[in-house]
Recover the amino acids of this structure.
């Protein structure tokens, strides 16, 4: 296989492609995050790409993850690409790297395959997904989570489950990602291939963005389906905007994020720019808050990560306590799910998403997973939470045909 295609990344909203690996840093949980600062400093003036698994929390908080891991995605990756290309209105611009004629033809052919209109009537291969826990076990876990809340060990926690297909020998990657993106049109979508792993991410959520000295984070908490027509859609928006449980979830996480930002913020700069706003996406409505702060221009990435990661929307509050609780309750290792994927600009600015609404594939083990979670509060109803999870994953896994789960 051409080494240019062993590692690549694509951000569809920007039409930014990166091929191959020029230099890389792969961390394990026993290595210091400060190594990332050295790597970024050495490559200032270049695009640097990164995948950071949820389990990096173990390095930050001295925790552990011992659950089953079907995907075994790398712990944390940072790399520069051999070729970085932008494409606007079918004009290809090489931002970094040099390619010969053969490589250029291969790269542009790959880009065309990702951007072309696929025949959606043909469908992908038929796969059946199964849950990591049964419905009954899920209900029992929610009851246990609520007991932890009653004991005062948590106010809110994000409990996740995994749906997966086994014995998946190959995927039509371009067609799958094309369909996922056209279905969601999610603003923080990304496709990653790293050796034997692939991530097909249709995320609507931003984790952190840096512009100069400003840090922005936009947690999502609160979800409802889209309506079949305008009147129904407006009714769902009203329901979501007035739902006390969904609002309280969002406010709690917003407060957590404010506290996280205060660890690195210049004094008096933390601000809630939007509180519990309804944002509409192609398949769902979400409640989103925007919180920002100013930081010193000398503030390193590792310090920002240690203050904010994992993102509050995927943990709950108080963060350290709920991370311990969910490790006990959940049946799988989250890995890149609930982690983050992003890009550092040549200027040093960066933008990272929250890896949700995603499919993750390991070509070596033949597993394809789609994980999902919901926020559990003392008012949580197990059946409602389960249905929320199904709503979030239904359209994604039904890209592979009708599922017996629904």
């Amino acid at each position: 296989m051409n080494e240019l295609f062993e590692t690549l990344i694509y951000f569809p909203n920007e039409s930014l492609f990166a091929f191959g690996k020029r230099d890389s840093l792969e961390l394990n949980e026993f290595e210091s995050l400060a190594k990332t600062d050295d790597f970024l400093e050495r490559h200032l003036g270049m695009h640097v790409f990164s995948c950071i698994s949820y389990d990096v929390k173990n390095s930050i908080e001295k925790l552990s993850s011992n659950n089953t891991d079907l995907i075994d995605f790398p712990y944390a990756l940072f790399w520069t690409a051999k070729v970085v290309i932008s494409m606007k209105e079918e004009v290809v611009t090489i931002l970094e790297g040099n390619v010969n004629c053969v490589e250029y033809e291969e790269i542009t052919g790959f880009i065309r395959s990702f951007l072309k209109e696929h025949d959606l009537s043909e469908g992908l291969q038929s796969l059946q997904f199964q849950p990591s826990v049964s419905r009954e076990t899920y209900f029992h876990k929610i009851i246990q989570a609520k007991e932890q809340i009653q004991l005062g060990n948590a106010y809110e926690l994000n409990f996740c489950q995994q749906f997966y297909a086994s014995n998946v020998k190959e995927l039509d990657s371009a067609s799958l990602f094309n369909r996922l993106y056209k279905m969601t049109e999610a603003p923080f979508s990304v496709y990653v291939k790293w050796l034997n792993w692939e991530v097909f991410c249709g995320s609507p959520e931003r984790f952190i963005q840096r512009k100069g000295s400003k840090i922005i984070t936009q947690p999502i908490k609160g979800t409802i389906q889209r309506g079949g027509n305008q009147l129904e859609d407006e009714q769902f928006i009203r329901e979501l905007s007035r739902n006390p449980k969904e609002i309280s979830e969002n406010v709690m996480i917003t407060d957590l994020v404010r506290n996280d930002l205060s660890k690195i913020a210049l004094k008096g700069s933390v601000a809630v720019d939007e509180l519990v706003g309804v944002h509409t996406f192609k398949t769902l409505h979400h409640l989103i808050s925007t919180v920002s702060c100013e930081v010193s221009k000398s503030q390193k990435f590792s310090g920002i990560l240690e203050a904010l990661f994992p993102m509050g929307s995927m943990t709950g509050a108080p963060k350290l306590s709920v991370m311990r609780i969910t490790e006990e309750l959940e049946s799988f290792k989250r890995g890149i799910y609930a982690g983050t994927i992003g890009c550092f600009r040549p200027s040093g600015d960066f933008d990272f998403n929250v890896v949700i609404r995603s499919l993750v594939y390991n070509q070596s083990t033949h597993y394809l997973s789609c994980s999902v979670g919901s926020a559990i509060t003392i008012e949580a109803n197990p059946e409602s939470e389960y249905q929320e999870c199904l709503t979030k994953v239904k359209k994604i896994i039904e890209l592979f045909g009708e599922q017996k789960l629904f």
Remarks:
- The longest strand covers residues 284-294.
- The chain has a mean pLDDT of 94.
- The radius of gyration is 21 Å.
